Amino acid sequence: MDVDEAVALTQDRLAQEGGTMGELLEHLRNWISPVLLGHPEWERVLKCAGQHPITMGALPFGFELPLHERRPEADFGVSLASGTRPAAFFLERAKSDRMDETARSIARLFRQMDTEGSPLREIVGRKVMLEYDIGSAAGGERPHPAMFLRPGERPIIGAGGQVNDVGAVVDALVACVGWERNDAERKNVERAYLAQPEDTRMDSFGVFPSRPRTMRLAVMGFKTQRAICSYLQEIGWPGQTSAVGSVFSRFKARANVARIGANLDVQEHGVGPTLGLTLIVKQRYTKDSRYWLDGLTDWDQFLAALSHEDLVVPEKLRALADWVSRPTTLFAKSGRYVLLRGIHHIKLVISGSQLRKAKAYVFLVLSGAIPD
Question: Can you say how many angstroms the Cα of residue 277 is from the centroid of all Cα atoms in its chain?
């Protein structure tokens, strides 16, 4: 059974359970430390997740956890693929509720993906990730989630002459959220791509419809501090590369950092001042659908290095270390499921001249494709 078949089977099983993602999260609540997500914060997450069908539990979902904040808050993320049960739910909602901007954006995006010969489908496949500002919204969840596309079908490699692929993904995101095309913004994104070394890749593109307009780019695969600092200088990042060097040096001394990723905010007037660093302890990007599941101890070394940073809340870091677990069997009325939990990545946020934030992106995923 391939991955798509397993996901479809799990969605069918979850449909038998009935209910919403909010009800599913309520069942999984005991698996999530209150140090990471407290009671008032849970209520806001459940309210948001309650607007989503339970069948979305067959693809990865999870949380953005601010390790630098004492408050146990989180943002909520879910995955969605065209041609699936959850996709049909949002397509129907887009027809029945013209005020639901999220459903309408998803419908616009899936129309682009599902068109015969779609260049977007050839690059990013069928999947989109939604991220809701809940803990970070300071007063309640935002009305429209951020939307991310990952070029997993046809990777966009630095120095690969794939400017047209970059433009196709940017245009798709801009169109689906109802923004007008901005040529200056598009040129700045292309500039960020063209400056990439040949051994890097454009890992994801994202937009935040409920925030000031920006295009979030994740560029992965830098091998050295010199390589990423040269890249940042070439694209005109206005921050201090000495701050990047300082953070990298501290972690390199304590962990076997193999690669570096950069999260950039590209705007009409250039690259924004905030930079996210993702330090990879092994080579983790691949087309293999299990790339984010393998290796339960990969994070031990990095978490130990992170514990030396004064801004990180120690209790949260200890709770995070317990997040990664072996597959766990759960029982429901439709049968057995396997629950997987892991850390997708940790982002170190630099602004001004120093490290300001540390955020962990953790996932859960259910599989009902269990042989008898």
Answer: 14
Question: From CA 241, how far away is CA 230, in angstroms rounded?
Answer: 9
Query: DSSP readout, 184-233?
Result: HHHHHHHHHHHTS-TT-EEEEEEE-TTSSS-EEEEEEEE-SHHHHHHHHH
Q: In a 3-state reduction of DSSP, which class is residue 8?
A: helix
Q: Which two tokens stand for residue 366?
A: 């259910």
Helix, coil or strand: residue 137: helix
Angstrom distance (rounded) from CA 44 to CA 274: 27
- Which residues, including other chains, have CB under 8 Å from residue 235's CB and lie 6 or more apart? 191, 192, 195, 264, 271
Q: What count of residues does the chain have?
A: 372
Exposure string for 348-368, b = 16+ CB within 10 A, e = fewer: bbbbeeebebbbbbbbbbbbb
Q: What is the pTM of this model?
A: 0.93
Strand partners, 80: 128
pLDDT tens digits along 145-204: 999 999 999 999 998 899 999 999 999 999 999 999 999 999 999 999 999 999 999 999
* Average pLDDT score over the chain: 92
